[in-house]
Specification:
Layout: H1 2-28, H2 32-47, E1 51-59, E2 65-73, E3 80-88, H3 90-94, E4 100-111, H4 112-116, H5 119-122, E5 136-145, E6 151-161, E7 165-172, E8 181-186, E9 192-199, E10 202-212, E11 218-227, E12 229-230, H6 231-236, E13 244-258, H7 261-266, E14 269-281, H8 286-291, E15 301-315, E16 318-329, E17 333-342, E18 345-354, E19 361-368, E20 373-375, H9 378-390, H10 396-411
Parallel strand pairs: 4-5
Antiparallel strand pairs: 1-2, 2-3, 3-4, 5-6, 6-7, 7-8, 8-9, 9-10, 10-11, 11-13, 12-13, 13-14, 14-15, 15-16, 16-17, 17-18, 18-19, 19-20
Helix pairs in contact: 9-10
């Protein structure tokens, strides 16, 4: 009985100490208004731009939580957060360490142009290499707005290892069919991740890794293998309209260099060798464009095969896409050429061979997406006909060269006169 009483006394004493400590913690915590002011000031100091915070509330039951609502940076356009709930680790707080078990973001708008203004402030946020500041991050209804105003909504979750290394990550486009998502899985403790991508009814699985130089700079390298990706559907998943439909497969390499993860994203370069079968050139009739000298190209062009290389390069002005070595065949024509797309503006040149005699007709497509101009000079048609007549039966290759060359001669502008050399003294 005496032993039992001793345990009861000890238990009561421990409970009293815990209650006393809990009461002291409650007294130390600031009010909601004080907390909102402190959060706003801290965010402004960290991000380098003023931040307005609607409200900040906290609770200790059933688990510690801080809720930030209606926060917005004072930018044009602003970055907005509808609701952010963070769950601090109580043992870490009592030990004087900043650590969070979980953070949940419900509703946010992230304009790309505004995010770039935060680089300088975010660069000053440093953590210990072996520290896990946040264990799990869950986000829902997060809207990304591209520099051109295209909006895309994402959901996902990330589990972190120390130093902000994602251990597992899942990013998805809710409400998009077919399923469009990305999964990353870290390989042990290496900065190397397996990737699983589902898009356009196909897949693009592979691997990415990040290397750190002696000076602290980062290099991202990776490979993906697109398989059975329906191009028009894949573009539509990101609210973009494709000029071609059909299933594509190939091999993609990725590379980027930078001092931060943000710089890696902004310098990302990809190179894809692709092939397509049973494709369709949408809203463009190549046959009609050649025969009308570019004045009429409404319609579609069925294509048996399309092959080529696509390079993308992120730049401060947006993504630049370059197509090279493109070759397309169908029952009525063949075409080859290259194109460059930047800032919703296209510049491209193709040589088109039609089965019934016109060979090597140069076709130029250029201008902003909203007002694309198509031209096939009359001289090019004449040159193509001459090429056919001069070399009957030899094949289209040499005839195409003659036709294209004569077409350029017939339509080229004279070169500007060179300035006369200065008289000798």
């Amino acid at each position: 009985m005496q032993a039992r009483n001793k345990w009861m006394v000890a238990g009561g004493l421990l409970l009293a100490l815990l209650l006393a400590g809990w009461a002291a913690l409650l007294l130390m915590l600031p009010s909601d208004e004080e907390l909102a002011a402190k959060v706003s000031a801290e965010l402004q100091a960290r991000l380098g731009v003023p931040v307005a915070v609607g409200s900040v509330g906290w609770s200790l039951f059933p688990v510690p939580a801080v809720v930030v609502q209606d926060a917005a940076t004072q930018q044009t356009p602003p970055i907005t957060i509808k609701k952010l709930t963070v769950h601090p680790s109580l043992p870490a707080l009592l030990d004087g360490r900043l650590q969070f078990d979980r953070a949940e973001l419900d509703g946010a708008v992230l304009p790309q142009l505004s995010l770039r203004a935060l680089d300088k402030g975010l660069g000053g946020v440093q953590t210990k290499p072996d520290a896990t500041v946040l264990a799990r991050f869950v986000f829902r209804d997060v809207t990304w707005i591209s520099r051109r105003g295209t909006s895309m909504v994402f959901d996902g979750e990330v589990d972190f290892d120390p130093a902000w290394r994602p251990r597992e990550a899942h990013l998805r486009r809710p409400g998009v069919s077919p399923v469009t998502d990305l999964r990353l899985t870290r390989q042990g403790q290496e900065d190397r991740w397996n990737t699983q991508i589902r898009i356009g009814g196909g897949t693009a699985d592979g691997e990415v890794q990040i290397k750190t130089s002696d000076k602290g700079r980062l290099r991202l390298e990776g490979t993906l293998k697109p398989q059975g990706v329906e191009v028009a559907s894949a573009m539509a998943a990101f609210n973009r309209r494709s000029v071609i439909s059909g299933e594509a497969s190939g091999d993609t390499s990725l590379r980027a260099d930078g001092a931060t993860v943000g710089e890696l994203a902004r310098t990302l370069n990809t190179k894809t060798l692709f092939s397509m079968r049973r494709a369709t050139l949408l809203r463009f009739d190549l046959n009609k464009a050649v025969r009308s000298l570019g004045s009429d190209h409404a319609g579609q062009t069925p294509l048996d095969t399309v092959t080529g290389q696509m390079d993308t390069q992120n730049t401060p002005q947006g993504m630049v896409v370059t197509y090279s070595g493109v070759k397309a065949t169908s029952g009525v024509l063949t075409a080859s050429g290259q194109a460059r797309v930047a800032n919703r503006h296209i510049e491209s040149e193709f040589a088109v061979d039609l089965v019934d005699g016109l060979i090597g007709v140069p076709l130029k497509v250029s201008g902003p997406f909203e007002d694309v101009k198509v031209s096939a000079p009359a001289g090019a048609i004449a040159g193509a006909a001459v090429g056919t007549a001069v070399l009957p039966g030899i094949g289209t290759a040499i005839g195409a060269r003659i036709g294209a060359t004569l077409g350029k001669i017939f339509t080229s502008e004279p070169e500007p006169a060179k300035p006369a050399p200065a008289p000798k003294r």
